[in-house]
Amino acid sequence: MTLNSVKSILVAVLSLSMLFGFNASAQENEGHSAQANSEDHEKKKGFDANEVIFGHVKDAHAFHFLSYEGSDGTEHELAIPLPVILYSPQNGFSTFISSAFHHGEVVDGYKLVDGKVVPVDPSVKVYDVSLTRNVVQMLLALALFVWLMLNIAAKYKKGIGTNRATTGVQTAIELMVEFVVNEVAKPNLGPKYQRYLPYLLTVFFFILINNIFGLIPGSANVTGNIAFTLVLSMISFLIIIFSANKHYWSHIINPPVPTGVKPILVLVEVLSIFTKPFALMIRLFANMLAGHIIIICLVSLIFIFGSLNKGVGWAFSPISVGFSVFIYFIEILVAFIQAFIFANLSAVFIGQAIEDTHAHPAEDHQAGKYDDAVIV
Question: How distant, in Å, are the alpha carbons of 51, 139, 209 from that of 204?
Fold first, then answer.
């Protein structure tokens, strides 16, 4: 168990390192536009649902919780600003806290435009490697994952779980580990399951922890970021490619079908190599993003109706809140389901790549027993 945990942690570190590199180029902002001081301007602007919805699901340079108007009439934000780290070949490194951009100020020759840090001078090239909320939340998820696994490993060393029954969180984690082993790894990978078990456990718990973190108000929707799901799917893709045996490649290059349809089926099989990681990427991204958007849309309806008529807004509030709570509990279930689906599909695709050849493929071919082509 300790060896598997260490392997899982190493794979998680690799995944996070790749995510750092992918997310370094362009960052988006969560922050809301400042409210107008006059009532006339508020009426003209109204409630911008599009800004609120996409402001919550995009990446940002701060953890934003709420905005409120102070006694002096100015708007204040309850947020946790994050470090901004910029590198420019012309100006070198610049580091400061994102709150410096709060009122649209220019800092070290940079300004925040639609959530993206841009130089005031267009001729200056800048690389944004800031610790955005997606990156910080992944660090927190990784820290929790490492602490959790090391703590459980220490309990096993003391005999808890071997000489006597497990307790508390250890029991829950052990049940999930056994579930992944018995329902994901063994059925799809057969006798070779132990070789891939560290990765499957790592990706399952890493996605699950980030899914649960994303349900906390004000947190980042990391698994609803396509860059995150792309990197995870690419890791699975590389494992599939480098694990594939001779039978897997021969089935793609020379499928056991009549000669007339071989060219078409070869094209289909080649495309299926790339549709598998694409399916992994889109499935996780779309499901986790959709749940957050639905919840925010339901809450936004209160303010949309309220901008038309305050009475209607107050009357619709219980309905909106009720549906939001209902969807929220469904999202808790979806957090577990999507972690399982990603790990399970990864195991299915790896299992297809390492599947042993048929005992008598030539005889099967002559007898007309052809494999069905399937696009996943």
Answer: 32, 16, 9
